[in-house]
Specification:
This protein is mainly alpha-helical. It contains 14 helices and no strands. Helix 13 (196-208) packs antiparallel against helix 14. The longest helix is centred in the C-terminal third of the chain and has 17 residues, at 164-180. The protein is globular and about 60 Å long.
């Protein structure tokens, strides 16, 4: 019987490997399997003995880790068991791509926002770069709205970590806050404790949005710190 690792190796494409590896410069274990192929495999695994798969799955390659995250998102189970699997998976994250794709797949959050919000808090105060990014990206996908905006901005402002991918996630989150809720976020932008890199990057991302008009972009650019 072909192992999962062998299946992934068979699906790898050399040119796509070069493309993917260039986008994730901090790792060197990319095989080059396209995401639609991984999703196809993940859906099949989620309909079968997925618990055994997750228990025995290897994490030598980027795609092996990505696949595990996808399966956790696809499976049908109760929230307690899913959160346990998420807790086990998060420490395996070592790049932005797995992190963000994993968060995208956790759509059960829409119906369990209060419970997941509480769950995320321990990750947001971690000292590990990708645990924090995981929490911040979950905010981006599921919590930037009228109900949570004040709490989200407060927590974003409290994050202090030198990791590049934390800073970029916080900047991204602040920019989405502005795009969705400009009035609340403008108050925050005028009074915050973000470091200059993160603050300026947030402004840049706001100006890159197609949902922001030219006059507003000009105003946002004028707020850049020197």
């Amino acid at each position: 019987m072909t192992t999962m690792k062998e299946q992934l190796i068979d699906l790898a494409e050399e040119e796509y490997q070069k493309f993917s590896a260039a986008l994730i410069p901090n790792i060197n274990n990319v095989l080059g399997v396209r995401l639609p192929e991984l999703r196809k495999i993940a859906r099949k695994l989620a309909k079968n003995d997925w618990r055994t798969y997750l228990e025995k799955a290897d994490h030598q390659y980027f795609e092996e880790i990505m696949l595990q995250g996808m399966v956790i998102g696809y499976v049908q189970t109760d929230i307690e068991e899913r959160l346990n699997y998420i807790s086990t998976f998060v420490p395996k994250i070592d790049n932005w791509s797995v992190c963000d794709s994993f968060c995208t797949g956790l759509k059960f959050t829409h119906d369990n926002r209060n419970l997941v919000w509480v769950f995320l808090q321990t990750h947001l105060v971690s000292n590990k770069e990708y645990e924090i990014r995981f929490g911040v990206v979950m905010f981006i996908f599921y919590y930037i709205d009228e109900q949570y905006i004040d709490k989200v901005l407060e927590i974003l402002d409290s994050i202090s970590h030198d990791g590049y991918y934390v800073k970029m996630a916080v900047a991204w989150a602040v920019s989405i806050c502005y795009v969705k809720l400009p009035e609340s976020t403008m108050i925050y932008l005028k009074d915050n404790t973000l470091d200059n890199f993160t603050y300026n990057k947030a402004l840049q991302k706001i100006t890159e949005s197609t949902r922001i008009d030219l006059d507003t972009k000009k105003k946002i650019r004028s707020m850049k710190r020197k």
